[in-house]
């Protein structure tokens, strides 16, 4: 089929990754069904409707992870579905006991909607490398010497983990459990056929934002040393303790990886996505050398120096290559923060 005949659905359309992905898909000629939690929020709806080619090829739908049946309408008639939407806080009151339960049930329902639609070829799920810790079963004392797709975060260690808080604990649990659940659909036969499922476990995502008014939460973590923001820096250190180092990736490479997975004739499985695997001290020292006028504090220049290797090559073996290196990611985060007045 020609691109203009292909319909794709993107959930969580006003988010940092999803908005950039929608823009790329429209520019490449696809028709996009995008979901948002609230179609009355003009700040988000208006931005998406102003994207290039949106008037002709973008259709907006209202749907929420906490009301997963609402995804039936936007998925109907689509050929590919990108499940990017992420809930960050548990909604109360709710039919679900926790954020993790809501996230997992939404993933299951979206997969079922894809099967029921009978047109969907592939479901591509945006996960996080926080679901892929190289910890052994006995916890932080046994970090493996490499990190790849075989790694899964042992959730029973999270409650006592360094720098943990309720927000991080809930996020890691929900992303890990929902990724495991959605990948099971590669083995399930329902309604007489298999659904192809891909999960992209992305590193800490940085770079400039197409959402012109703000810096994304993940980019705020990346520039936390420049802002001397203790809360965001503790999130960075949590990632470093959980994963050995900090996998980072540019938002444009993340979007290109999603489209790469769409364009493969047949594709399934789990893939880690990051272009750099660095320490918090590496990031702090880069800022010190490159942006001396921002006065990075000495406490950010030291930290663990672990000899853990990034062992994931599955996506590159398929022919995908990231275009943005560490310098480009960090510089674009700074550029975005300065543009919107956060630095």
Keywords:
38% helix, 343 residues, alpha/beta, Rossmann fold, three-stranded mixed beta sheet, 14 strands
Structure commentary:
The chain has 343 residues and is α/β, with parallel strands linked by helices. The chain has one domain (3-135, 144-205, 247-276, 308-323): Rossmann fold (3-Layer(aba) Sandwich). Helix content is 38%, strand content 17%. The strands form four sheets. Strands 3-2-1-4-5-9-12 form a seven-stranded parallel β-sheet, sandwiched between helices. A three-stranded mixed β-sheet has the order 10-11-13. The chain has a two-stranded antiparallel ribbon with strand order 6-7. Strand 6 and strand 7 form a beta hairpin. The protein is globular, with a radius of gyration of 20 Å.
Shape: globular
Let me know the average pLDDT: 93
Please give the radius of gyration in angstroms.
Answer: 20 Å
CATH class: Alpha Beta
In total, how many domains does the architecture comprise? 1
**Could you name the CATH topology?**
Rossmann fold
Pairing-aware structural class of the strands and helices? alpha/beta
Give the tally of β-strands: 14
Helix content: 25-40%
Describe the largest sheet: 7 strands, parallel
CATH homologous superfamily designation: NAD(P)-binding Rossmann-like Domain
Alpha-carbon distance between the two ends? 46 Å
């Amino acid at each position: 089929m020609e691109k203009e005949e292909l319909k794709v659905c993107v959930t969580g359309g006003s988010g940092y990754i999803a908005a950039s992905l929608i823009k790329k898909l429209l520019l490449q000629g696809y028709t996009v069904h995008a979901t948002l939690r609230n179609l009355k929020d003009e700040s988000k709806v208006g931005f998406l409707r102003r994207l290039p080619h949106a008037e002709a090829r973008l259709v907006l739908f209202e749907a929420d992870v906490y009301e997963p049946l609402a995804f039936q309408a936007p998925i109907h008639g689509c050929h590919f579905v990108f499940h990017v939407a992420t809930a960050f806080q548990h909604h109360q009151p709710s039919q679900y006991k926790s954020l993790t339960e809501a996230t997992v049930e939404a993933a299951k329902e979206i997969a079922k909607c894809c099967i029921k639609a009978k047109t969907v070829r592939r479901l591509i799920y945006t996960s996080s490398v926080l679901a892929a810790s190289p910890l052994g079963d006995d916890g932080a004392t046994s970090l493996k010497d490499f990190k790849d797709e075989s790694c899964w975060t042992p959730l029973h260690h999270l409650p006592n983990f360094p720098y943990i808080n309720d927000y991080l604990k809930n996020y890691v649990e929900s992303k890990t459990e929902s990724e495991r659940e959605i990948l099971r659909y590669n083995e399930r036969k329902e309604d007489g056929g298999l659904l192809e499922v891909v999960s992209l476990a992305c590193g800490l995502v940085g770079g400039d934002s197409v959402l012109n008014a703000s810096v994304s939460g993940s980019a705020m973590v990346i520039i936390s040393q420049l802002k001397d923001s203790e809360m965001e820096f503790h999130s960075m250190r949590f990632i470093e303790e959980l994963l050995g180092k900090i996998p980072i990736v540019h938002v444009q490479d993340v979007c290109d990886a999603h489209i790469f997975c769409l364009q493969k004739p047949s594709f399934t499985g789990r893939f880690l996505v990051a272009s750099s695997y660095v320490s918090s001290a590496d990031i702090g020292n880069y800022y010190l050398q490159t942006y001396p006028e921002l006065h990075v504090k000495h406490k950010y220049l030291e930290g663990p120096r672990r000899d853990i290797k990034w062992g994931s090559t599955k996506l590159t073996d398929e022919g995908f290559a990231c275009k943005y290196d560490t310098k480009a990611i960090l510089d674009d985060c700074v550029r975005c923060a300065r543009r919107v007045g956060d630095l």
